[in-house]
Structure formats: C-alpha cells, structure tokens
TrEMBL record:
This is DUF317 domain-containing protein. Residues 48-104, 133-190 form the DUF317 domain. It comes from the Bacteria. InterPro entries: DUF317_SPDY (IPR005523). Residues 229-251 are annotated as: Disordered. It comes from Streptomyces niveus (Streptomyces spheroides). Pfam families: SPDY.
Length: 251
C-alpha cells in the first residue's frame, strides 16, 4: 500500500494564503524559458522572459507588493505592470502567468474581466464600483478612464486589515486580467498543507481534508511543468498529400 499524506482543501480559494511560489516560478523557468538572475545574498527572485521584455520580481517586503510583473513598451503596445500581495494564492497568480506565456495566446484584447465574475454570481456592492464576491470578501474594480485606468482586486474582512491586493495598469492585456478573474472566481478549493492554513478569516473559510498518495503530491509540480512545456512543442507538420493523377478518359 502506498504512503499517503493529509491535504487540506480550502475554499474560497482567495483565502487560502500564498502557497508555494515555485508553482509560478518553476514553470516560468523550465517550461517557458525565463532566465533567472539575482544576488544570492538578497531574499528576492528575478525572472526575465526570453525576449527580455517581461520581468517578474518577488521581493519579500512587508510594506510593498511581493510580486511584480512588468512588461516593457514595444513596437506593438505600451508597457504595463501587475502587482500581487504576499497572500495572493499562487494558483490565481499562475492563471495570469500561464496566460502570459501561452504561445498561441489571444491578441492584446480579450474578454471583459468582469464576465467570469458575473457568471459566478458576483454582484455590484452598494456605493462601490465593480463586482464583489457573494460573501463580500473579494472586490474587483475598474477605476479611471481610458489611458489612465487601473484594475484593482482586494480581499478584506470587515474590521480587519486587508488580506491581499492586486493591481493591473490599464494597458495590461485584458485576456491576462480575465484569466486572473476567472481563477479568482473559481469555486474549486485549493490544496494546502494542513499545518499552513492561514489564521486570518478562519471563520469565513471552509477547510476539508483528504488523504492522497504522497507520490502524487511530490510530482504535482513536475506534471504541471510538463503540461505547460507541451504548449511550446509545435505539432509535426502534416505530410503533403500524395499526387493522384486525374483519371484517364476512355471511349
């Protein structure tokens, strides 16, 4: 009988805590070819895309966002930036980076980021702009006007500090923000080590447990890397159809 370990399943996922950053960084490096370079004496991670236009930084600074992704201006579109707080679940950040590195990804525009939220029955809270989760904990807003706009995501419990925030500048491709909001609204619980369940908002989350093969947990990241790497493998070119001469006419 294979060894099993206990996993906690946390819902809603936006209260699950940050999780393992490697869920994002390892696939960026191994599946999408992002290079890494940082001072080993500094507690930060820097990854750069193969075209040198996009950079991911993780800086464990309690006063600033831990995660920052910046894309430089190029010939086709303006630069943009996205930031995520330390407690943003890595599964939700990964939805953004997976869409960013998807080879056949959509062009600069995509579905309205509010669409996945409306489909999950998020609604407009009183006296606020944007959409709030049914439990009132998460809020997504689109503020400002074209050219000077900003998407914000905030999770907070009344009379308690904000749990985490995310920001997207208005020039961020909308299909990337939509990937983020789709994962944000996903009602599927996320797995965590039972000893690492966040202490904040415990009365607002559901925590179940299950026993799973230890080997499955250990190989989950490797399976994710392989699946994402497969997106970069072009299918073999189809062989040309053989030439078939036209039928001869007979009398």
């Amino acid at each position: 009988m294979s060894e099993t370990i206990e996993q906690a399943l946390v819902a809603p996922r936006y209260l699950a805590g940050g999780g393992d950053p490697g869920w994002v960084t390892v696939p960026l490096h191994r599946a999408a070819g992002w290079s890494y370079g940082h001072d080993p004496l500094m507690p930060r991670v820097i990854l750069t895309s193969p075209d040198q236009l996009t950079q991911l930084r993780i800086d464990p600074d309690p006063d600033d966002p831990w995660w920052t992704i910046r894309h430089a201006r190029d010939a086709h579109r303006p630069g943009w930036a996205a930031t995520f707080g330390a407690r943003t679940p890595v599964e939700i950040i990964a939805a953004f980076t997976d869409a960013l590195t998807d080879p056949p990804g959509p062009a600069g525009t995509g579905a309205d980021p509010f669409v996945p939220l409306r489909e999950a029955e998020w609604d407009t809270p009183r006296h606020l702009y944007g959409l709030a989760s049914p439990d009132g904990i998460a809020l997504v807003e689109h503020l400002g006007t074209a050219g000077n706009d900003l998407w914000t995501v905030e999770t907070a419990v009344i009379e308690s500090p904000t749990i985490w925030r995310a920001y997207f500048t208005g020039s961020t491709p909308t299909h990337l923000i939509t990937a983020f909001t789709r994962s944000l609204a996903d009602q599927t619980p996320v797995a965590r080590d039972p000893s690492n369940i966040p202490g904040f908002a415990r009365d607002r989350m559901s925590v179940g447990t299950r026993r799973v093969p230890a080997a499955d947990v250990a190989s989950a990241l490797e399976r994710r890397v392989r699946a994402l790497a497969a997106r970069h493998t072009a299918p073999p070119a189809a062989a040309p159809a053989p030439h078939v001469p036209p039928p001869r006419r007979t009398r």
